[in-house]
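Category: protein sequence paired with discrete backbone structure
Discipline: computational structural biology
Format: plain text, a pair of labelled lines
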Amino acid sequence: MNDRGDAQAGRPVLFAGDIHLGRRPAVPGSVLPEAGIEAHELSAAAAWRTTVSYAIERRVRAVVLAGDVVESDNDRFEAFGHLEAGATTLIEAGIPLFAVAGNHDAAALPLLAERISGVTLLGAGGRWEYVPLPGPGAEIDLLGWSFPERIVRNDPTLDPGLEAAIRSRRSSAHLIGVVHGDLDAPASIYAPLDRSRLEATPADAWLLGHIHRPDALRGPRPAGYLGSLAALDAGEPGIHGPWELTAGPDGITIRQVPLSPVRFENLDVPLGEAATADSVMDTIRETVEAALGETIAQAAPWLKLVVLRIALTGQLPDRRAIGELIARHEPSSFFHVRGVPCIVTKIEDRTRPAIDLDALSGETSPAGEVARLIRTLESGAVPKELDAPSLEIIRSWSTGAWDLGPGYDVPDRRELLLHAAWRALGTLLDHRTTGETR
């Protein structure tokens, strides 16, 4: 939205998801000095300071935190200093700070809010509450609920207090719901939330904390997770940062601001048949530039480091060079994309041998058995029972094939079997080529 649109709609409101003050991202420390980065620059506290500076620069109307501001009750003393400093800076700039408590800071955040002048805890004690947002521009009411304790098994949307708070709010105001909880997870012990009941309310948006991967938050009435303010590990890939919400006569608009100092990504890198150990790193760099270059450039004022987990794909006539590359890879080496250092912490071999699978399937050899299994799995079927030789091949040659590590979604059974079978087949063919036996 341009400056004229901002003036008509009023100043934006800045919403931030899980900050987890007290945590630092899972980044290999060995690369930081060589890249000119101090460890504290990547911390949750650093992301909070950047958010405060951005809020003042943008002259936002208010800052709203969606819970888990503090990593744990044990971090309250360290977190207090960071939170108090940021809150004081915001209040002095005329920007109020609102927050709901999450499961990590159910005890700590209310205590911190009591001690910091200008911080408003919404829905304290697990009671729904609405608060009119001060400031010029379109009328906005915040609707919030806070964790009363670390474990909450009941769905907060079933609380009659929700309807009572909605009836009390200003009918002419935009209603923005803020809550920390587990969406569409009825068995959760962390405030399971029913999406249909949230969407049945008259709220213009529901902005949630708890899950660290942000949702797209598109459409006229967005409902979903803000994501963690700063990415903390490989399980939180993609863009992270606060969200700017602007309200006007035509409704609300919301956009994410990429303020996170670190970004994690899991990328598939396809290799051509002529790939060599020396050319793979160039291919990785080119793939990162093509896939992420534009968004890295947009985040460059704030982004300090990109952490990559790479899966090599493609069909290769000789895959031994890939194994050699992975064996000697140093997870602390880095390259630059758009001026931002990028490190590759893990390279996984998901390449496949360049073979005629149909021809191989006709063999009575162990490789032929595995080829037939692959054909079955690729058709979408999962054999009810695998014969003993096929199972033994997978066990013998595919140890750890499904240990994909953090940051990858767990595949289903068919994908696991297919991954293991291809790995087994590649190893069998490598030994056939070299004349080795096991």
In short: The two ends are 65 Å apart (CA to CA). The chain has 13 helices and 19 strands. Residues 262-434 form one domain.
